[in-house]
Amino acid sequence: MTLDNLEREGSAGAVCPCNIEVGPPASTGERHAAGVDAIVAANFADATKLALISVDPRGQIRFVNRAAAVLFGYVREEMIGRPVEIIIPERLRSSHARGFARAMAGDELNLGGKAVEVYAIRKDGAEFPIELTLCAWHDGREMGAGAVIKDITERRERDSRLLRLASQDLLTGLHNRSRFVEILKIEMAAGRPATVLIVDIDGFQDVNDTHGHVVGDSILQSVAVRLPHRLPAGAEVARFGGDEFAVLLPNLGDRAAATAVAEGIREAFAMPFEVGGQILDLSASIGVAVSPLDGDDADELVASADLALVQAKSGGGRALRMYDRAMRNEANARRALRDELLRALRSRELVLYYQPQVHIASGIIFGVEALIRWQHPQRGLLLPGAFLPALERSSLALEIGWWTLDEACRVAALMNAASPHAIKMGVNLFPAQLHAPHLCAKVSEALEKHGLAAGLLELEVTETIALHDDDRSLEAMEMLRKIGVGIAFDDFGTGYASLSSLQRYPLTTLKIDRGFISDLATKPRDAAITRALIAMSREMGLETIAEGIETLEQEAFLHSLGCPAAQGYKYGKPMSFETLERVLPQLCGG
């Protein structure tokens, strides 16, 4: 709290220099009135929570109110007559003395009329921040000065907390994304190279689902402690959110050196994490981008590292990928395709085609599989391979998935109304649908909306999708079976399911992949596998459908193996509902 500093800064407290003219000596009555006024003023000063202090021209304290004495830790009498320096930190006293001397000499103070924030000191020697408003005056005989003081310790702490919230991840204490990008911008503005690594924990969602969020949070905190020990001096670490961390290597533009650091991070995950008595083995995927080659500004460099991470995760994780420009071209193409798909959905360009499923012995239809197509205005009818890979990685998968479910249920109701016997509708689920918490509610809603019996709907999932998230997939399937909906394992034999998984999941149908069917007559191993699958499915009470039947020979061979049902071009290519309606009487044996 110094007049000298405040005056130089030109931003200090309200100063009200008063040139008071003093008249003839006061009468007795006037002196009495003045005394009464002084008592009232003193009582008024003690009533406020603001600290009030005045000093004489020698800098000695002339008056303090009760709040000031309490604020500085003194009894009031201990302050009166003492130099004001007792509340000024020693490091600030010399500059205060210079400013005070000029004020008492009558120099005009340029303090701007605003409160300022400075430091004061208590009786016990503790410094603390205050907000100070100064006032200087002349009473006709001598100069004087006063101050209105407010303790702003709580406000400073609150501001500090808000600053931390704005720049720090609360769970780990690391930088947050905003602060990380800010630091990166400073580095790049200085013209220095920089490397950004985005680190994602493989299978972290499984940890949360299996062990709970408390264990998951502990893992994140452990990673926050472990990562910095694997990094060179000067590296900055941030948590971007979820299980994603970022590392900035300032003044590093060498890809080989960046790769070496990234490998060190992966090695940090080689040691198991012990949390709450549980040993958890985790791995990491890392995307790396180096400036200026991979980005001219901070946002572009982070985006490049993100794209590299997507590539690292796409192969199943446990990978390290360095950014290259082909990734951005691929990402842009996927984004453009997703945008076009959204337009296609709104414009009703997406349609469902239906492929019959028949009993081999009679050739009579008992079901159809709904297959999505895109009636593109320029490119014609597109098969799923042209757009599903981009769709499955986007949030649009859920919207299109729910549309597919609703449309298939609508057609199933119409089809069964026109058929002499029940015909089941098979609908493929996207991974996002199988893991959606409201899957069962969505299915029930579609069934009720179109008046379709639950037993006439069978949802198809590939074994790979189901096993990717074992527990959640199992729970979802069990809920669907409780309401009567069938569950089919599609393309069985091409994924990684163990035979015991057929017992674990509440399946109704096993669909044998076409890869085992095409060369049944010439490949004894394919025939042996197909025979075993058919027998096992029959023993487990599952319906068995062989996919990809195109010839009489394949059909006859499957019939000899005991396969009851088939699907393929021999019985009809995927067709529109209008076409299906026309051939339905023939397929129904009419």
Automatic annotation (TrEMBL):
Residues 192-325 form the GGDEF domain. Residues 334-588 form the EAL domain. Residues 52-107 form the PAS domain. Residues 114-164 form the PAC domain. NCBIfam families: GGDEF, sensory_box. This is PAS domain S-box/diguanylate cyclase (GGDEF) domain-containing protein.
